[in-house]
Each structure stands twice: as structure tokens, then as C-alpha cells.
């Protein structure tokens, strides 16, 4: 039997052998993984654990919160606040940043997360996930402010997601490729099941909410229209469509077999750059995709180059197989 490498061992080796991650970052990632295990447990209980349904509240974006949104948010905060490796956290479910309470030591990292992505799929037993991004606190010994979080995605020091599906899988990058870990429920540990993940540059599979077609901009319409023409169109091949409506699950499919995912700007809300959030959805996913050889843009520039101006800023997202993402981005350039 080939030797099993746990997440713990993987991270220790990254720290010790490759000298790639400081010990504080290793500990932080261990804690995030532990929190994901807890969320996975809650997700699995479903109706038996009383975790389904809405919580009767709204988050800062005016979205109805599900019970699991709130549970996952609390799990991540409670797991991470006392370890001494963080200065502050930010979440899709909280209006402003969460400072590590004074009773605990403070570290040099900032953690951002979407605790439960794909909320509309919770109650129907379809894959959902947690997305996270780690930044370093800028130099200086003053207190933490929201502006400390407003760093472009290229400044991330770690990013990942955990998908709660038929298996619970943690996907991680610390900037030297992407690794996948499957949760061994009997042992209670994440085990390395794929290293050096590579996304094929070409694909015949796209993921987009087609019901929004009438609201899209011309470049996105053109791209999808050409895909739909199949063998008889300019692409000269048939395309397949997949849309889970959980970004984590759609991105995980792309990580596994390639594809393109788009949640573009659309005319329903002309003043918003898109639906998905830059700092805790698009940035971590964009970096993971790039680290696996794919590409991620907002149609005009690399997502990782976008300078955030607000914590809950939104962005147009086009990510996945490199050649397809470049094609859609080129269509935007031609249309500009
Ligand atoms: P959430 O973070 O509130 O769950 O919203 C984000 C989700 C993404 O996971 C997914 O890509 C998108 O919203 C689905 O939107 P739609 O309802 O248009 O299918
Ligand atoms: Mg989300």
C-alpha cells in the first residue's frame, strides 16, 4: 500500500523541507482545516441535526441567511480566534472585520472566508463548500483596520476551499501548486489524494447561469453563442453545460477535469461589477485556478490584479481552462 500523507505531514514538510511556509501559517491552515471538518460534520447531519432552513436574518449583502451559514461562520471564528496566529478575520456573513479579542494573543495573518458557499443548495442535499483566503497584515504596530484587508489577490499567502459533497475534499495552495486532501472520516484526518493539480488548457464544458442570458454583455453572449453552435459553429466542437450553482462545486469540477466558469457582470444590476465577492470568493478561487495552470479574469484584467476598495466588493468572474478564459477576455477587449 502506498504511504498516506496527512495534511499535517504535508504542511510540516512544506515548512521544514521546502522552507515554504512559516510555522504560524502552518498552524493557521491546520486550524482552518479542523474548522472545515466541523462544518462537514454539521452538513452531514442535515435535518437530524436541525441545521437546515433559514435563520430568519439577513447578511450585509441583504441575502437571507441559512442556519448553516451562521453555524459555519461561528465554527470558523471560534476555531481561529484563540490560536495566536491571526490579527483579524472577515467573512461574507459579517458586516465588518472581526478583531481577535484582547484576551488572546495576536498574530500577523488576516483570514477571509465565505463560510458556506452555495447556500441555495444546502436544503436540497447538493454539494456546498467553504472558501478561504489568507493575507499578511501590513507592516506596522498599530491596530488592525478594514483597510489592512484591502490587498489585491496576488498578495495572498494561502488560499483554499473545502467541498462538502459525496466526499469532503480540501483543496489548498500556498503558492507552489495545488494539492487536494480527502477527509478520512474514520481517522478524522485529511489525506493527500492529489498533488500538483493541473487544469487542461482546453475544454468542451462551460458553467454559467443560462437563465441570465438576456442580461449579459455582448462578449459573454458571443462566447456562449459560439459554444451552443457546437460542431457546426466557429468552435467546430460540441460543448456540454454544467451548473451546480455552488461556486465551490463548479470550481472543483474544473480543477478535476477542466472547464470554464463564469459569473459575469450583467444588466440586472448595472452599477455592481458582478455577483460574486472579490476578497473571499474570486481571489482565493482565482489564485487556486492560476496555480493549477488555469486563468482567472474579470474580462479585462487578472482577478488577482484587481485592487479592492471595499471588503464586500463584487467582481465579474471568468475562470478555468486557460485558452477558453483567454478567448472570453479577448472578446471583451475586441468589444471595448
Ligand atoms: P452564496 O455565497 O450566497 O452562496 O452565493 C454565491 C453563489 C455561488 O456559489 C454561485 O456560483 C452563485 O451564487 C449561484 O448563483 P445563481 O443563484 O445565479 O445560480
Ligand atoms: Mg459564496
Topology:
Elements: H1 7-16, H2 23-45, E1 54-58, E2 64-66, H3 67-80, E3 86-91, E4 98-99, E5 109-117, E6 128-136, E7 158-164, E8 168-173, E9 178-184, E10 189-194, E11 205-207, H4 218-229, E12 240-241, H5 247-257, E13 260-263, E14 276-277, H6 278-291, E15 295-297, E16 314-315, E17 317-320, H7 322-335
Helix pairs in contact: 1-2, 2-3, 4-7
The protein binds 2,5-anhydro-1,6-di-O-phosphono-D-mannitol and magnesium ion.
Structure description:
- The protein is α+β, with helices and mostly antiparallel strands and 336 residues long.
- The chain contains seven helices and 17 strands.
- It has helices spanning 7-16, 23-45, 67-80, 218-229, 247-257, 278-291, 322-335, and strands spanning 54-58, 64-66, 86-91, 98-99, 109-117, 128-136, 158-164, 168-173, 178-184, 189-194, 205-207, 240-241, 260-263, 276-277, 295-297, 314-315, 317-320.
- The strands form four sheets. An eight-stranded mixed β-sheet has the order 4-3-5-6-7-8-9-10, with helices on both faces.
- Strand 11 (205-207), helix 4 and strand 12 form a beta-alpha-beta unit.
- Helix 4 (218-229) crosses helix 7.
- It is globular and about 65 Å long.
- The model has no long low-confidence stretch (mean pLDDT 95).
- Bound molecules: 2,5-anhydro-1,6-di-O-phosphono-D-mannitol and magnesium ion.
- The site of magnesium ion has 5 residues, from strand 5.
- 2,5-anhydro-1,6-di-O-phosphono-D-mannitol binds at residues 63, 92, 114, 117-120, 209, 245-247, 263.
Amino acid at each position: 500500500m502506498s504511504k498516506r500523507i496527512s495534511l499535517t505531514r504535508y504542511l510540516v514538510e512544506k515548512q521544514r523541507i521546502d522552507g515554504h511556509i512559516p510555522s504560524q501559517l502552518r498552524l493557521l491552515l491546520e486550524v482552518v482545516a479542523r474548522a472545515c471538518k466541523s462544518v462537514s460534520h454539521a452538513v452531514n447531519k442535515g435535518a437530524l441535526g436541525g441545521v437546515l432552513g433559514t435563520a430568519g436574518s439577513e447578511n450585509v449583502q441583504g441575502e437571507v441567511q441559512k442556519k448553516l451559514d451562521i453555524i459555519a461562520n461561528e465554527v470558523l471564528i471560534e476555531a481561529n480566534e484563540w490560536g495566536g496566529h491571526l490579527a483579524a478575520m472577515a467573512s461574507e456573513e459579517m458586516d465588518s472585520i472581526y478583531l481577535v479579542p484582547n484576551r488572546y494573543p495576536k498574530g500577523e495573518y488576516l483570514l477571509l472566508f465565505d463560510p458556506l458557499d452555495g447556500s441555495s443548495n444546502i436544503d436540497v442535499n447538493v454539494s456546498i463548500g467553504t472558501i478561504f483566503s489568507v493575507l499578511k497584515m501590513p507592516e506596522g504596530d498599530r491596530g488592525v483596520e478594514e483597510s489592512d484587508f484591502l490587498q489585491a489577490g496576488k498578495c495572498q499567502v494561502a488560499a483554499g476551499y473545502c467541498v462538502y459533497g459525496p466526499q469532503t475534499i480540501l483543496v489548498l495552495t500556498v503558492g507552489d501548486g495545488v494539492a487536494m486532501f480527502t477527509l478520512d472520516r474514520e481517522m478524522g484526518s485529511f489525506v493527500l489524494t492529489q498533488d500538483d493539480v493541473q487544469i487542461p488548457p482546453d475544454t468542451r464544458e462551460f458553467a454559467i447561469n443560462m437563465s441570465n442570458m438576456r442580461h449579459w454583455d455582448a462578449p459573454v453572449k458571443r462566447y456562449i453563442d459560439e459554444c451552443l453552435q457546437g460542431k457546426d459553429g466557429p468552435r467546430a466542437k460540441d460543448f456540454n453545460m454544467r451548473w451546480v450553482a455552488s461556486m465551490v462545486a463548479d470550481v472543483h469540477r474544473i480543477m478535476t477535469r477542466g472547464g470554464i466558469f463564469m459569473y459575469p457582470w450583467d444588466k440586472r444590476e448595472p452599477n455592481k461589477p458582478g455577483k460574486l465577492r472579490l476578497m473571499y470568493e474570486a481571489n482565493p478561487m482565482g489564485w487556486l485556478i492560476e496555480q493549477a495552470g488555469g486563468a482567472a479574469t474579470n474580462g479585462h484584467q487578472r482577478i488577482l490584479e484587481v485592487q479592492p476598495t471595499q471588503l464586500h466588493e463584487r467582481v465579474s468572474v471568468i475562470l478555468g481552462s486557460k485558452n477558453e478564459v483567454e478567448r472570453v477576455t479577448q472578446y471583451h477587449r475586441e468589444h471595448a
